[in-house]
UniProtKB/TrEMBL annotation:
Positions with a binding annotation for acetyl-CoA: V82, G83, V84, R90, R91, G92, V93, L94, R95, S118, E119
Protein name: Predicted acetyltransferase
Family: Belongs to the acetyltransferase Eis family.
Keyword Cell wall biogenesis/degradation: no
Coiled coil start-end: none
Organism: Amycolatopsis tolypomycina
Cross-referenced SUPFAM superfamilies: Acyl-CoA N-acyltransferases (Nat), SCP-like
InterPro entries (alphabetical): Acetyltransf_17, Acetyltransferase_Eis, Acyl_CoA_acyltransferase, Eis_dom, GNAT_dom, NAcTrfase_Eis, SCP2_sterol-bd_dom_sf
Length: 400
């Protein structure tokens, strides 16, 4: 359909993008006070608009880096503010925006794209696969204590929000990253600033200082302190630790704050070790597991050669990518690396399914059993499980 045009928006048009996007997700426009912060979350040149001639659809991005299994980092974009005006949906506007955005990323040498999806049925057709998952849990702070043998040491420093926004970005940058973690560019911290300033109770941060300097932090605020009788929940919006000692130290602090009934952590890695630290593991309760990041391999060859692999017999994976056809073809995956090959494929899959196994979140065997991978060599699924498997669960921890 071509009765609309797609173009990159100027900075002065960003507020219209925000208004349109918020309308599509049934939120009111930002007021002037919020827009002071929200505007800083827009990367110049990062927003696309669809016009007919009014603005009827948007999609935007910011540049970042993604950590892949093995620790290498490659360029990614965080895709956000995707919305099409309700009276212009289902006529190809999103498809045109996604196509233009991905082609631009490919031309710029971006290797990945990440997003958080409003609905699970939208993005698979554009090559995005669910690549990280997270779990939420609540800990009964009145009851929970860490085991006496839990790691201890280091110092804790409590910061108000202004100071936290100065200090935490540097601590984050210095931490080792899991597969799936992104760098946090300035625009992302501006988003978090906006969100944290919105709370009616003060947001705080606690930084853990280990032998080599700051090695972890948690950002939180407490809800419920104004109602009587009160039931307070300390909500953890960020928690990153570069060592087991920092992780235990941050939790020990959070669980020891007075007048807190519950500590809620919404989006933690699937293998977050909190239960192992609690003296009574039933003082914490997993509330649910949910989607986290959807990943698009924009440059399949570069993505496959960037990550590390486990030990197993080599496997040839044939990939199909209708949207970015240059990615289609066969790739030889070995413990020493990956690259294009003419050898016959043991596994065939689309680029969406490849994204699901890329960070190790889903196994090729499970996806083959689900009918999403065509198996041509019966030995290939088990070998691919070992090649693509990771030691720690992939997780991003960054939301936008
Ligand atoms: C990263 C983020 O920002 S997530 C936020 C996404 N935004 C929203 O959820 C806001 C509310 N929804 C919308 O604004 C729109 O309905 C959008 C953006 C989801 C879809 O926009 P449209 O212009 O209607 O999509 P378009 O017509 O290009 O459809 C492309 C394809 O996606 C499908 N599709 C569109 N929306 C959905 C949906 N919500 N669920 C499942 N499939 C969908 C279409 O059926 C079409 O399928 P096809 O490839 O088989 O033909």
């Amino acid at each position: 359909m071509s009765d609309f045009e797609i173009r990159t928006l100027d900075t002065e048009e960003h507020r219209a993008v925000s208004n349109l996007f918020r309308e599509t997700v049934h939120m009111p426009p930002s007021d002037d006070a919020e827009w002071v912060y929200a505007a800083r979350y827009y990367q110049p040149g990062g927003a696309l608009g669809a016009f007919d001639p009014e603005l009827i659809g948007t999609a935007r991005l910011f540049d970042a880096e993604l950590t892949v299994p093995g620790g290498a980092r490659r360029p990614t974009v965080g895709v956000t503010s995707v919305g099409v005006r309700a009276d212009r949906t289902r006529r190809g506007v999103l498809r045109a925006l996604m196509t233009a955005q991905l082609e631009d990323c490919a031309a710029r040498g971006v290797v990945f794209a990440n997003l958080l999806a409003s609905e699970a049925g939208i993005y698979g057709r554009f090559g995005y696969g669910l690549a990280t998952r997270c779990r939420s849990y609540r800990v009964d702070a009145r009851r929970a204590r860490l085991r006496p043998d839990a790691p201890a040491g280091g110092d804790l420093e409590l910061l108000d929000l202004d100071r936290a926004l100065e200090v935490c970005p540097g601590v984050y940058d210095g931490l080792e990253r899991r597969p799936g973690m992104m760098s946090r560019p300035e625009v992302l911290w501006r988003l978090y600033e906006m969100q944290l300033r919105r709370h009616t109770t003060p947001a705080k941060a606690v930084v853990h200082h280990g032998p080599g300097g700051p090695d972890g932090f948690a950002v939180y605020h407490v809800e419920g302190a104004t109602a009587h009788p009160w039931t307070t929940t300390l909500e953890v919006s960020d928690l990153f630790a570069g060592s087991a000692t920092a992780y235990a130290g941050l939790w020990r602090f959070l669980l020891g704050i007075d007048l807190v009934d519950r500590v809620a952590a919404e989006s933690r890695p699937l293998d977050d070790p909190i239960e192992l630290l609690l003296a009574d593991h039933r003082s914490g309760k997993v509330e649910g597991i949910s989607d986290e990041h959807w990943l698009r391999l924009v440059d399949v060859g570069e993505a496959l050669s960037a990550r590390a692999y486990g030990h197993a017999d080599p496997v040839v994976v044939e990939v199909t990518d209708p949207l970015l056809p240059g990615n289609s073809g066969a790739y030889l995956i070995t413990p020493d690396g990956a690259g294009r090959t003419d050898r016959p494929a043991g596994l065939r899959m689309d680029v969406t399914t490849l994204a699901m196994i890329y960070l190790g979140t889903w196994t090729p065997s499970a996806l083959a059993d689900a009918g999403r991978i065509e198996v041509r060599d019966p030995a290939a699924p088990a070998a691919a499980d070992l090649l693509f498997g990771t030691r720690v669960a992939a997780w991003s921890g960054s939301y936008f």
